Structure formats: C-alpha cells, structure tokens
Task: structure prediction
Amino acid sequence: MAEEIAAPRVRARALDLPLGRFRPGRFNAITDVAGVRVGHTTLIEGDGPLRPGKGPVRTGVTAIVPGAGNIFMERLHGGGFVLNGAGEVSGLTQVMEWGLVETPIMLTNTMAVGAVSDGVARYMVDRYPGIGDEHDVIIPVVGECDDSFLNDCRRMQVGAADVRSSYDAAARSRGATSPPPEGAVGAGTGMSCLGFKGGIGTASRVTGDGYTVAVLLLTNFGERDRLTVAGVPVGRLLPAPDMSAAPPAGSCIGVVVTDAPVDAAGCARLARRIGLGLARTGSTAHHGSGEIFLAASTTCRFDRDGAPEAGPRVAGRGLDPLFGAVVDAAEEAVLNSLLGSVTTTGRDGNTSEGLDPAVVSRLLAEAGHAGH
Result:
C-alpha cells in the first residue's frame, strides 16, 4: 500500500527557540529556494512479528528536484562531503568529480538504493531519449539510511512505480502554500534519531544579501542521552524509555540548495557545514553511521550543450553568511524531523517514540530558556 501522507506535526519555531541570526524563508523549508520541489511516497503495510521478505513495511521514497527547468540539460553546480562513510549516496563521486548535479536527488532505505537508482534511470531515459546515445549516461543521486529497526529491510518493497510516484508528487508541489511534509513520511517513514522517531526535516535561512539557503535532512542517527535542543541537554533530562530503542548509529543524509551563485568548490564547502549543525543537536558521527552531504546552486548552471553560466560568484569570505545559514538550518531541520514525527511501531513491535513538544518546552522553561 503506497500512501502520500502528512503526519501531524509541530515545528521547532513553535517552541520559540533561538535558532540563529538569519530569518527563515517563507515556509522555512528547502522549497523556499525558487524552483525546488519535494515529493514523498510512503509505504506502510502490516504489523506484528517480522516475516523476512513479507513485512511489516515502514519505508518509502523522497524526491528532491533541486531547481526549475531541465536538470539533465541545465545541470547545476554542486559538491559533496563525507563526514563519516558508513553509508551511501550513489552518484556522489561523480558530483564531486565534475562539480555538477544532473539528476533529481532521491532518498530511501539502504536496501532499496539499487531499485530507486534503476527507477530514476528508467524515468529519465524515457524523458530524455538522448541519454546514453548523443549524451552521456547518468548515475542517479540516491542517498540511504538503514530503517531495519522498524522495517523489513529484506523485502524489496520499493519499486519503479514508487520512484515515479515521489517524482510526480514533487512536480505537483510546485506553487505549494505550505512546507513539504516532515517526520515519518517518504524515506523518513522508518527512521529513528537521537533515541526518538526521526525522518525528514527541513529549514531555510535568508542572508543579509538576500540569498536563500535551505537544508533537507534524512535523520537516522545518534543516542538519546546526547539529544540537545538550543543548548539544553534534553536527552539527559528525560526519563529512560520504557521500550526498546533503535541502536545508536544510523546515518544522516543532508542536502543544501541555495540561490546564491556558488561554484562547485563553494558548494562542497557548504555541504560540509551540515555536520556542524548536526553536532549542535548531539551527533558524534558514530563508527557505523553515514553522514553524507550534498549541496547545489540553482543559479550557477552548466548547460550540457554549452559553457558554464557567466556572471559573478559568491566565494571566499563572501561564503561566511551562507556557512552560518547552513549550520543554523541544519540544526533546525534535525529538530523539525523529531518534532514532526509521531510514535511509530514496526516489525516485531519495535517502537520509535515521538518526541513530545510539550515536554521539550517544559524542559527548556525549567532551564531558564528565554521565551519560556
């Protein structure tokens, strides 16, 4: 059963948190960058004991289309960074080598990377017949996290139809009047973060120069006692859980998109700043975790049949405000992924607890947090 759902959620802004000096964009989301679209396909099926290859299913696919226009013919300058490599983003080595993004960015579970990559390749070959003929072949960009605590990872439940569904949902999101769904949706359906239910989170910032910098994360990392909210050690102040928790590893795949004209080298530098935002929330990048990040500029393009777009570039010290925006947005995106997720039970009764916003608000007030 495939469902596109928007789980009930509270965003971090509702708690009056100090989350950096720049104001957020209109929706405080990656879609605040003009032309960027996001779509989810959520797969939920079955309950009870694990029957390998048959369920229960708690997984999905998330599609990020990083800019308007024809991403294949009008490639974006981009870059990436691997903070800890116990994970995978297929196609990232080519992005880092060429400094270009030429496919949608897809997110899913670990075992579905091949299926999603195949689905994207088939979709793009149908849409752009020149691929592999008059033009180069493609390597789709597909990031993964391990959702096997809640999901039957041995069942290859994600297929080409789900890839197309998520891409179609992204196309329909053009002109949306709200942020994209967060929490336990799409690729985030089966993910856990810092001892609670994680998943999809997004946030944006507008710099003093008027550039929008936005982040979307797939969060599946960390230990409960390290959870930190606006500097308050919330994880240590909460009582121990009365249920089995996801193991403290997992991964985080992060995507930065900006409308600032940043070249490939600058995009790589933006990407690595996601790690500083994760650290603020409690990440230590475990041995078994994959913290892998990608960034792209929607206004720094390289036409497939021509030359790089001419014009000024933001570089050197000019990147400093963008760095700060990435760090702040990444921190907030983690919190949005947590606060936007409801308690979810999956295989074998394993349960990932939703972080209660009211409890977080109370702990912040007791810690003397301004605004409470």
